[in-house]
Amino acid sequence: MSANPFFDGLVGVSVLVAVAVVCVSAAWGTGGRLRIRRLIAGTGDLRRSEARFRSLVQHASDVITVIDARGEVGYQSPSTSAVFGYEPDEIEGRIRTDLIHDGDIARASAAGAELMRKPGTTLSVEGRVRCRTGGWRHVEAIATNLLHDPSVQGLVVNTRDITERKQLEEALTFRAFHDPLTNLPNRALFADRLAHALRRATRRGDSIAVLFLDLDEFKNISDSLGHGRGDELLAAVGARLLNSMRDTDTVARLGGDEFAVLIEDAEDAAGAASVARRVLAALETALRVGEQQVPVRASMGIALSPKAGTTAEELLRAADVAMYAAKANGGGSFEFFEPSMQAALLERMDLENDLGDAVDRNQLFLEYQPIVSLGQEAIRGTEALVRWRHPKHGVLPPGRFIGLAEDRGFMGAIGTWVLRTACAQASEWHRRFPRSAAPRMVVNLSTTQLEHPGLVEDVELALLESGLDPERLVLELTESVVLENETAIAKLGKLREWGVLVSIDDFGTGYSSLSYLRRLPLDILKIDRSFIDGLDRVTHQSAIVEAILVMCSRLGIEPVAEGVEREAEAIELRRLHCGLAQGFYFERPIAPEKIAELLALPAGAIDLGAPGAAAARLPS
Ligand code: C2E
Ligand code: CA
Ligand code: CA
Question: pTM value?
Fold first, then answer.
């Protein structure tokens, strides 16, 4: 077995093409439409295998087309009727450009021309084909130039219907940039629009305004409304905000009860202030939630460019800081950002100075979160998550310092420390608990780490000095890091040759072009938390997760569901046959000693089916 499922997939495709070529020559022999030279005449064996090939191609679900040197379709396989609804003889002859989508014709003919020039090569192109019922199907065509091959003398095109995959891509991309509760743009899309607006404003010398809005007392209101009503309230707030803005403004939900508004042509502070007043007034007219009328209040911070910042990140942060000032003043109002509000930013600088020495001063430590098999209730892996014990600010989560470490060039040293520590830890567990199915160790890699030239050596060193079996190490990266980065792909390929596994983190949070999944050296895919949240309540959500799981199984990728917080979500995942999961419902990230205690329990003694149950069984 090859260790790379994608590779197997590719071999599968090329075998299909090869089979197609042979069968096509056999089929031509019978059809007699094109001149055909039989390779070898004769023996019974050969006739039998020809018959087998013929039957294969006649029954293949992919559509096989052979185009001759004049650019005409010489052969079309019968499967075309099942896939597109046409009989082969409707397709044979002059190429039916009327069946190809206008937007794809130029690309398809350019690919055809390129292929004609290069005998022996194969290339693939995607496009839309009109089927008999009038609808469009998305297809992927893999074409090989066999004009020079006397037994074929044509371009062999293997066309496959990928409509389902395209639909999944569209759904994923929409979900990646929209909040499922309100369908408003999410933080990622807001940041993107903000960055564009800033570029335009800078060119024209205009100003833009960012309004950062946070509901007052949301937790209390939602607790008193009862289960599920909090979500309804947030959705109603989203709708109300959208209604009170112009079409040209962007309203987004950033998360929780935080919303943001982008006003592109904010002439001055007075203009932004009047929008802010209008929004706050709109919210104070009670919202309908179930049977109740609920008035809400909000606090708002306003940041105007270029005064409060010149990048999307600076402006959002400034508006956030100003929102806190509004909240501190009692809420229900707004504040403009003032440089004096920058205490929060100063803290960042403080951290910046200390971060450089954190490794040397032994201030970093790792916690490990179990990854469990759904159904078997066993720990299959642990994810190493770094924390920083800051002498003044206490224990800081990675979200507070990883970005900073990346910016300031400290990530290399931190990453190497994490890798070595985690490998040593995993190796120690394997020695102490040889009976337990050795759990994998998942280590996160950031962008800069992957780009670092010494990465492969770092991993090699960590494996050598710990003695950890490479197949027990999983390197986890976000998809944006790996996409389009050939050097990174080559590095990962090298590591995979040793047996190290590669996992994609936070899947579904970026632009989704799923065809890359087949090209990437990839073993595991982590379905982002945002898809798991509400899985059991939102049917649409469950359909997407199911589609991701189906895709994983086709590509031979192991899926892991991330951020499982509630029993109902775990049950739904089990129903969808998702094998592995991770989340607070099973266990939070915990100290290595606690993991060791879990691994020491006899098989079957860990009850991971109830919240916090694993930890509850441990002596505290
Ligand atoms: P991640 O890789 O997506 O890690 C999972 C994060 O989700 C962890 O947060 C974990 O505590 C949290 N989590 C786990 N289960 C649940 C759940 O059921 N609900 C919720 N709401 N959250 C859950 P943490 O430890 O704060 O880490 C945040 C991020 O920091 C990680 O996200 C990862 O991207 C990064 N990170 C952590 N350690 C390292 C490291 O050693 N190196 C690098 N490069 N990045 C790291
Ligand atoms: Ca991770
Ligand atoms: Ca993740």
Answer: 0.70
